[in-house]
Write a structure and sequence with these properties.
The structure holds 4 protein chains of 4 kinds. By secondary structure, chain C is mainly α. Chain C has helices at residues 6-23, 29-52, 77-104, 110-129, 133-152, 158-188, 193-200, 207-224, 233-239, 242-267, 270-275, 278-298, 303-324, 327-358, 369-372, 374-388, 394-408, 412-438, 443-446, 453-471, 474-487; strands at residues 58-61, 72-75. Chain C is globular. Residues 140-145 of chain D have low confidence and may be disordered. The chains are: A mainly alpha, B mainly alpha, C mainly alpha, D mainly alpha.
């Protein structure tokens, strides 16, 4: 019972946050609300017994993604979304059709929490029953992630590696193509580096050389 | 009727959340807001997956004494992977937004379009 | 002992090479390694096809876990065919890329650029090889993310907006695919394609299954650039670096066609397609795509955009073949997939070579360039003939099979649409030929020289492939036949 | 934040704690929630935290961009290398059973190795991404202080 109560409450919070995100025009608020949305969904993951996922969502969604969005906001200095000039009728129609299709699709879906659904009866039992004996890992999520479906995780790692390569290619260079007005993110420190003299000089000439290339 | 609400409300709210995100992506012209929309869309899909794996009165799938009912670990694993894919996409999208701002001076789709057309 | 691992090495070798390339110093070394890797992949893919072309199946259990608990690579003739196409195009694109990339990409980014190229290859090959729907999603995302990056590397600022647009649409597509996979998983509890097929059979009437199918199809259609979801394609192909236009135009959408085939015919079945309105939807989308995309192509003022719209039209032919849902129709789809990679690769290479010389792909800037660059122009012309479907070229074979499949079902209308599409392609290709050959060159155009040999050789290699597969159809038709048999698609009967 | 003693003090003492927690999550992933990915994020957060207070330059002296790039590549190579090792030992790709005489030990070893690869790549990629965003558009010469 208490689980259901928490579940409903969190879902309600999520719904309110999502609507607020659509309505808000101040991008800073939108990003903050997104962080809240993410944290709430992490809470919901915990309620639904997905501890690992909750951990990751809290670290990634509420953490890294939000920080990156804030950094982008600081770089673009665009705090207010423009009011669209045209009505969003077609998007609304598309969304309504998609949503209706999904609701239609839930009619035959197994009940929420049903222990006899196909997803609980097929494939899963072996993971539960034999993962300790086969992989020696009590955390089944780790066992599946790293061993049974380890190749997916290699793919996942490659995805994140791709993102690293992509960000380096797109904005890895220190200086923008077109000189921007001097920019200082408010979180940057003007602190005099401790290891200033020698190290720093060396580092900077190295960078300069790279720019000349 | 009540039965079906109790057994499906979770999916329905999640679908509503998905559509809120989807709507934000396709109706908004601000590039950062679009990325937020994508993230909400994806996070809601993650919620759907975890709902599929949920067992009432179960515990997280970490084997321990005294528990027999565990939630399904496979959706968790899939979602862990999907979260990583999501954050990678977000990082790339935001990097593109930064570059677009440098090149166009704006991150509003309409204004970018106008600039491209005026050339 | 090592032989059993070849199918896997096909994906893992470029995967290992990608971080190695990223660590190499900028210069020609990264290119050399990529060249070696792609040709190695081509060799492995050829070996793989030779093993499975008679209907054998290679099954490889990753991590030693039996499916459906672990991930399985299950290579049949169709997988091997697609893998050969992807690695073949990659192996030919890399020599072409050397000069063109040196000109278009800043020197300090070369090694990262080639690393992203390899990752794109990894993604496409991984998709082609896998037998697990979620693994397919992961590798599809590798290829998508890396293609966003590669497109954004174009020199104009619009490359950035093109990449962003592609990113948004591609991610929506991926999320739709994820929703579809989730719904199917909720109904079956498995992710292995074969297992899914078996477990879906008794519950094929469930509304959840239908919805899952619809979401998977819409998701793939976004990646496939199926008309009217093609909006990202023209700009993406136009503003990408030339070598990337070649590679993506020749492979990315074709791999999406493959995913569609796999999902529709392996996970679901040809019966499902025929008994539900699916085949009608495919036919309708195909017809609209062929006609409208070709007409839009006629009005383009930019050579690369024109070819991009032509790609949308050609992909629609493949969907048309799937809509026919007969053995012959799907055979035509498979053959056209392969042949279209050959001809679109060659066409984009020719335009890329001109861009290499004049720096721009707008038609008015290409006036009279054909006479300055006769070899490039000749390549464009022959590949164009292949695209139209003139006998003696690869394009003829696939169109021929498609028309046969339509006539087999007495669908005169569809046969007419196919021929109309060919006529429209004559019109838009003529537009380019006219500009290239019959218009007087501009003053600056007169000083333009023929493209360097390193661009011409790969281009002509593809031209010869176009002619070879137009005359000797043994490989393509045999493999496509075997693949269709394994998909279990019966021939059409009343 | 230049002279904010409290912030500097907190970061100095929190940094090792966060890093230690990252290691805990990394190696305790077999038994509790967590694993390479989460650990990588936490470790990168420790460095991000540090750079927020002490400045990007200082952090980059500890972690020069070139080194980060190599570390990022190494993680992927460790993961794929584990797979290739099992392949060379005669098994399938990522079949950890062969890594040791005892299959369970082999599994432990394999999972440890790949989680290590994941942790290394994830933390370095996150740092690369953060540094790229934070350092963007900040002309080199203007950073005199």
């Amino acid at each position: 019972m208490i689980d259901t109560l928490i579940d409903v409450t969190l879902l309600a919070f999520l719904a309110i946050t999502a609507i607020a995100i659509i309505k808000m025009r101040n991008l800073f608020v939108v990003i903050m609300l997104f962080g809240i949305f993410s944290l709430h969904s992490a809470g919901l993951f915990v309620v639904m017994d997905a501890a690992d996922v909750a951990f990751t969502e809290a670290a990634v969604g509420a953490g890294i993604s939000t920080v990156l969005m804030l950094a982008t906001l600081a770089l673009t200095k665009n705090h207010k979304e423009k009011i669209p000039t045209h009505h969003a009728r077609i998007p609304l129609l598309v969304v309504l059709i998609t949503g209706a299709a999904l609701v239609y699709g839930t009619y035959d879906i197994p009940d929420f929490g049903d222990p006899h659904s196909p997803a609980q009866q097929h494939v899963k039992p072996r993971y539960i029953e034999r993962s300790v004996e086969e992989t020696g890992t009590p955390n089944i999520v780790t066992a599946v992630l790293a061993s049974y479906r380890g190749y997916d995780t290699l793919g996942e790692l490659t995805v994140i590696f791709t993102a690293g390569i992509g960000v380096l290619l797109l904005i890895g260079g220190r200086i923008a193509d077109r000189p921007l007005p001097t920019f200082r993110p408010n979180f940057s420190s003007k602190l005099r580096p401790i290891l200033k003299d020698k190290f720093r000089h060396k580092f900077r000439t190295k960078l300069r050389r790279k720019d000349k290339e | 009727m009540i039965d079906i609400i109790i057994s499906h409300y979770n999916y329905w709210v999640v679908i509503m959340l998905m559509m809120a995100g989807f709507y934000t992506v396709i109706s908004r012209g601000n590039l950062i807001k679009k990325i937020t929309g994508i993230n909400i869309f994806q996070t809601s899909v993650f919620l759907m997956y975890i709902s599929i794996g949920y067992v009432s009165e179960g515990t997280p799938p970490i084997i321990a004494e005294g528990f027999t009912k565990y939630s399904n670990p496979l959706p968790h694993v899939m979602i862990l992977t999907a979260i990583v894919v999501g954050v990678s996409t977000t990082a790339l999208g935001l990097a593109l937004v930064v570059r677009i701002k440098e090149a166009y001076g704006t991150i509003e789709e309409d204004e970018i379009h106008d600039q491209d057309m005026s050339l | 002992m090592i032989e059993q691992n070849f199918s896997l090495l096909l994906v893992v070798i470029p995967l290992i090479a990608a971080p190695v390339v990223a660590m190499l110093p900028n210069g020609r070394l990264p290119w050399l390694l990529v060249l070696v890797v792609t040709w190695l992949c081509l060799a492995l893919a050829s070996w793989q096809l030779s093993v499975v072309s008679d209907g054998d199946i290679i099954s490889y259990e990753l991590g030693g876990w039996a499916p459906p608990w672990g991930i399985e690579y299950r290579i049949d003739a169709m997988n091997a065919f697609v893998a050969l196409m992807v690695s073949g195009i990659a192996a030919i694109t890399v020599p072409y890329a050397l000069r063109s990339v040196e000109k278009e990409i800043p020197r300090q980014q070369i090694s990262l650029f080639y690393s992203a190229f390899l990752l794109c290859l990894v993604g496409l090959l991984g998709v082609a090889q896998t037998g697990d729907v979620f693994n397919l999603f992961v590798f599809l995302e590798i290829s998508s993310l890396s293609s966003y990056i590669l497109i954004a590397m174009g020199r104009e600022r619009r490359a950035l907006t093109a990449a962003y647009q592609y990113l948004v649409m591609g991610t929506i597509g991926a999320t739709f695919l994820l929703i579809g996979i989730g719904l199917l998983y909720a109904e079956t509890g498995t992710l292995n394609m074969l297992d899914l097929h078996q477990r879906l059979e008794p519950i094929i009437d469930h509304r959840t299954v239908h919805t899952g199918f619809a979401f998977i199809i819409v998701g793939i259609a976004l990646k496939l650039a199926l008309f009217p979801l093609h909006l990202w394609v023209p700009n993406a192909y136009k503003y990408a670096p030339s070598a990337i236009s070649v590679f993506l135009a020749a492979t990315a959408t074709k791999v999406a066609v493959y995913i569609m085939l796999r999902m529709v015919f392996t996970v679901f079945s040809s019966d499902f397609v025929r008994t539900t309105p699916t085949h009608l939807i495919f036919l309708m989308l195909g017809i609209f795509g062929v006609v409208f995309a070709s007409i839009i192509a006629i009005f383009q003022t930019d050579a690369k955009r024109l070819l991009a719209y032509s790609s949308v039209a050609q992909v629609s032919y493949m969907v048309l073949g799937m809509g026919l849902a007969s053995a012959l129709g799907v055979t035509a789809t498979l053959i056209h997939m392969f042949n279209h990679a050959l001809m679109k690769g060659a066409l984009f290479m020719a335009i890329g070579a001109m861009v290499y010389r004049v720096g721009i792909s707008r038609l008015e800037e290409l006036n009279g360039l054909g006479r300055q660059m006769p070899w490039t122009f000749a390549a464009f012309f022959i590949a164009g003939l292949s695209l139209i479907g003139v006998p003696g070229t690869a394009g003829f074979i696939s169109k021929w099979y498609l028309v046969l499949a339509a006539l087999e079902q007495q669908s005169w209308f569809i046969a007419l649409v196919i021929i109309l599409g060919s006529l429209l392609s004559v019109v838009y290709l003529w537009k380019v030929v006219e500009v290239l050959w019959f218009y007087p060159a501009t003053e600056s155009g007169l000083s333009v020289k023929e493209a360097p040999v390193s661009l011409l050789v790969p281009m002509w290699a593809l031209i010869f492939a176009n002619i070879y597969f137009g005359i000797n159809t043994e490989l393509t038709v045999n493999v496509a036949d075997t693949a269709v048999k394994l998909l279990g698609i019966p021939p059409y009967h009343e | 934040m230049k002279h904010n003693l409290i912030l500097r003090f907190i970061v100095k003492y929190l940094f090792p704690v966060i890093a230690l927690f990252a290691l805990y999550v990394q190696f305790h992933g077999d038994y509790g929630p967590g694993g390479g990915f989460q650990a990588g994020i936490i470790l990168s957060v420790a460095f991000i935290f540090y750079s927020l207070v002490f400045g990007l330059k200082t952090t980059e002296q500890v972690l020069p961009p070139g080194v980060l790039r190599i570390v990022m590549c190494t993680g992927v190579l460790i993961y794929a290398g584990t797979g290739v090792t099992t392949m060379l030992m005669g098994g399938n790709f990522l079949d950890y059973n062969l890594l040791s005489q005892n299959p369970i030990e082999g599994q432990h070893l394999g999972i440890l190795m790949i989680e290590l690869g994941v942790g290394i790549t994830v933390s370095s990629v996150m740092l690369i991404i953060f540094f790229a965003f934070a350092g963007r558009g900040r002309p080199e010469e203007a950073d005199h202080d």
